[in-house]
Amino acid sequence: MEADNQQQDSTAVAIGQELRAAREGKGLSIGEVADRLKLSVKQLNAIERGDFASLPGATFARGFVRSYARYMEMNADALVARLDQCVPLDTPPAALVPVNEAPAKASLALPLSLGALLVIAGGWFLLPGAAEPEVQSSVPLALVPTVADPDASALQPTTSDVVAVTPPLVPASAPQPAAPAVTVPLAVAASAPSAAAPVAGQGRIELRVRQEAWVSITDADGKKLVYATLAANDSRQLQGRPPFRVVIGNAANAELAYNGQPIDLGSKIRGTTAKLELN
User: How far is CA 231 from CA 214, 254, 263, 264, in A?
Assistant: First the structure.
């Protein structure tokens, strides 16, 4: 027996030495091999020493040796076969003992117990003076209304009660979506009838700027109807006593109408400013 143990130990050491020699022959450090095989340096040192007992188990040891041998381009099957001679395989778990007899015994005991109970019950009824068992209702009598009980109808819901708590399925009115805003060009707006007709003796001016522009409009009384910088896409509708003195900066991006008639600003522009009088 001792000679067999010595032979197994020498075989394990020889396997480790062969793997180590192959690694050193390729010029690889043990750390590089550990990174490549995803093993720890401690596990590789144990393999190269032939100390397979320090590994997690025989199954893991066989897998480690096989991966190591393949990476070293060695005959992995031959090394694993030699490893099986010195490292015994993991002992399989003990088989469970079937317990099929227990239900059979229980199934036989149940009819016997029931028969014994029936015999005892029958003998008890045959005894003289045996009282009949009292059957109790599982429902309290106080909770069972009778026909003569005037309050029994209170337990039934009335139609009016159901209707009172039933929420309406359809809302009375659905909110209507807001109508989208429609932008009307100045030429169209000029042709449409004005909501507020100009007062007799006054003129009506409509102005729109596509880009930011400075505007000054003064009537005959010297009243400044507009004297400000208008933002892009801003528009104004003005009334006053003519004649009007009009000054528009960035006039190329402005549209002007007087009493519903478009005014051509192109001929009035000097640089970027248009100056004109409306009468």
Answer: 9, 11, 21, 21
Helices in the chain by DSSP H: which ranges? 2-25, 30-37, 41-49, 58-71, 76-86, 101-126, 159-165, 186-191
Q: Among 246, 255, 254, 268, which Cα is nearest to 189's?
A: 255
Query: Which of the 8 DSSP states describes residue 28?
Result: -
Taking residues 169-183, what's their average pLDDT?
52
Of the three residues 37, 65, 86, the one that is the final residue of a domain is 86
CA angle 102, 108, 112 (to 5 degrees): 140
Residue 15 is assigned to a structural domain of this protein: yes
Which range has the worst mean pLDDT, 103-112, 244-253, 259-268?
103-112
With beta carbons less than 8 A apart as the criterion, state whether 49 and 41 touch.
Answer: no
Residue 150 maps to a domain? no
- The boundaries of the domain holding residue 56 are 2-86
Q: What per-residue confidence (pLDDT) applies to 19?
A: 96
Contacts of 22 (CB under 8 A, 6+ apart): 72, 73, 74
Peptide bond just before 92 cis, omega within 30 deg: no
Question: Which is nearest to 207 in space by CA: 224, 183, 190?
Answer: 190
Top pLDDT among 118 and 66 is at 66
Position 178 confidence tier, pLDDT thresholds 50, 70, 90:
low
Looking at the predicted structure, is the pLDDT value of residue 227 above 80? yes
Q: Could you give the CA distance from residue 72 to residue 23 in angstroms, rounded to a whole number?
A: 7
